[in-house]
Every structure is written in C-alpha cells, then in structure tokens.
Structure to design on (360 residues):
C-alpha cells in the first residue's frame, strides 16, 4: 500500500514537472514567435525607409502598403506611407493633396490611439500618436498654416515626451522633440531677451545627435534634420560632415546634394560647389521628376557660382536658361523663394552686362 502511495506521488510529481516544462517550452516558443514577428516588422520598416532615402518611392509605397496589410491594426503602415508621400513631395518641390494627407492622418491616428488604449504602460502608442501629429504639423507648415502647425507640433512633443517617460531609451522620439526645440527657439529668437523664453537650440541639436547615433528607425530623419539645422546655424563644416554620412547611405539623394552644395557655397569652396550642383542637375534630369522650381534653383546657384569664379560665359548661359523658365508654373508655397532666386539672377545679369560679357 505504501509502495502504491509512493508510486502515485512520484507519478504526480513527474506529471507536474512535465506540465511545467511543457508550459515553459510553450511560453518560450511563443516568445520566439513574438521576437520573430517583431524582427520581420522592424525589417520591413527599415527596408522601406532605406528605399525612401534612396528615392525609390514606388517600392517604398509597396513595402508600407504590405506592412499595413500584414499588421492591419498597427499605425506604422499608414504613418510611414505618409512619410514617403511627404518625402517625395519635398523632392519634387510640390505639395501633396491635402485630402490624401487627411485620410492617412485619420487612419494612422485611429490606430495609434487604439494601440495607446490597448497597453497604457507601453510607449509605442504615445510614440505613434506623437509621430502622426508631427507629420501633420509638417504638412501644415509647408502650406503656411503656421498656427495650426504650431499646435500640432506641441501636441506631438507632448505625446513623444510621454512615450519617453515610459521608456527613456526610445531614441526615435528624440527626433521630433529635438527638431521642435531647435526651430521653436529659432523662430522666437527675437523674444529671448524675455526671462520666460528659453533658447533650446543647443538642446534640440543634442537630442538629434543622440537619435542619429542610437535611434532605431529614425536615424535618417535625424541626420536630415541636422543637415538643415547646421546650415541654418551657419555651422557649415558640420553640415558637410552630416551630408557625407547621408550620401554614404544614399549616394544620389537630391535633398542631400542640395544641402551639401549649399554648405560648400557658404564656405566659398566654389569649385566643389559647382561639382555638386552639376551632379544634382544630372540627378534631377535622370529622375524624370524635374520641376520648374528645381530647375530654377540649380541654374540660379550655378549662375552665381560661375560669376564669382569669373566664368562669365557660363554664368550668362545659366542666367539665360533660368529666364526661359516660367515663374507662374511654380507652386504658390514656393513663389517667395523663387522670387529670391530671380532677384539673384537679375543681379548677376546686370553685373555681367556692365562688364560687357565675355569669358574668363
């Protein structure tokens, strides 16, 4: 009888151990599956962003449409689809259709808020809410809706800061916060004599530099933001270094070439600037996405540089090419910038005419 009871207890213990091991193996398997799914998810985002940086927009759209269909409840699909849409529009120097932006913002925000509600302790929902607000703010600013853009930006930063409270290593969130802090201070620098107005430009740069080194999906965005911030801050050597990092990742990036050429021009490295702007002109022509403003921008810069180098014939040639472009075909949001380019061209033309033309 005792032997039977002992055997029964032994079998019970053995069964419990087997169940525990089985449960542990099952949980480990589920964790492995979750990790594999997350790796697949992150891989799709990384590939799509790399395609975007390399201006392969149609393929990037396909990647993010696939991401959205594979993860229909997650905001990443519409968020990054919107990111590609804005990147392409910036490259082509036009505005995307607002109703398309509105529909993507609506879908992305619904998914982000649902993710936020699903797991209140996770930073992911807050991060995507902040990202959606930030993308919407960018589009509003491009259209000149400054007050709405400011309100959206403030909401974006608030949500991103909440995400960081949950996970201080979510370095991608630094991009939106750092960009906001720099440009808010830059646009209000005339008020910084007031005691309650802080200059957060250096803090903004610091956050972006951290994101560029330690971020996950937003390293490219951090570098692009730093490129134009360093140009604005007249730190042209740093702008050049950032541009070279970006070109190592995407050698034909037209947005980066504009930034690099601008930095070289500001540093008076004129021959190098000519090389970059000629390369940019070639890339624009090869892309098949030339626009009136892009053509004007490149030709006006080349006219200015060649005039500074004393290459009068080349300068006049670019002036004449630019004059044949039609100002009225340039989008309204770029008219002010285009007017500045035409004024530069007129100044070069007048100086060349006074000197009687000719070549170096």
């Amino acid at each position: 009888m005792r032997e039977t009871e002992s055997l029964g207890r032994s079998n019970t213990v053995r069964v419990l151990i087997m169940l525990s091991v089985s449960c542990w193996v099952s949980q480990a398997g589920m964790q492995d599956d979750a990790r594999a799914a997350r790796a697949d998810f992150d891989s799709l985002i990384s590939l799509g962003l790399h395609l975007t940086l390399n201006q392969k927009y149609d393929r990037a759209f396909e990647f993010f449409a696939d991401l959205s269909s594979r993860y229909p409840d997650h905001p990443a699909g519409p968020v990054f689809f919107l990111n590609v849409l804005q990147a392409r529009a910036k490259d082509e120097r036009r505005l995307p259709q607002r109703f398309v932006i509105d529909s993507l913002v609506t879908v992305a925000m619904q998914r982000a808020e649902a993710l936020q509600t699903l797991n209140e302790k996770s930073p992911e929902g807050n991060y995507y809410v902040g990202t959606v607000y930030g993308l919407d703010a960018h589009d509003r600013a491009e259209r000149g809706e400054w007050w709405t853009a400011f309100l959206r930006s403030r909401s974006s930063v608030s949500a991103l800061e909440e995400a960081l409270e949950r996970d201080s290593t979510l370095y991608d969130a630094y991009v939106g916060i750092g960009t906001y802090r720099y440009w808010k201070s830059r646009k209000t620098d005339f008020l910084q004599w007031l005691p309650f107005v802080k200059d957060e430009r250096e803090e903004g740069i610091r956050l972006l530099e951290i994101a560029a080194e330690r971020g996950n999906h937003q390293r490219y965005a951090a570098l692009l933001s730093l490129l134009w911030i360093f140009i604005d801050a007249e730190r042209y050597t740093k702008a050049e270094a950032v541009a070279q990092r970006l070109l190592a990742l995407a050698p034909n990036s037209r947005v980066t070439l504009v930034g690099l050429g601008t930095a070289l021009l500001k540093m008076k490295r004129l021959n190098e600037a000519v090389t970059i702007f000629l390369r940019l002109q070639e890339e624009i022509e090869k892309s098949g996405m030339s626009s009136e403003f892009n053509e004007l921008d490149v030709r006006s810069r080349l006219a200015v540089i060649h005039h500074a180098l004393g290459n009068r014939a080349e300068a006049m040639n670019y002036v004449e090419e630019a004059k044949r472009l039609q100002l009225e075909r340039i989008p309204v949001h770029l008219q002010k910038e285009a007017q500045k380019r035409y004024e530069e061209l007129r100044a070069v033309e007048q100086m060349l005419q006074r000197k009687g033309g000719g070549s170096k």
Notes: The two ends are 115 Å apart (CA to CA). Confidence is low (pLDDT under 50) at residues 13-33.
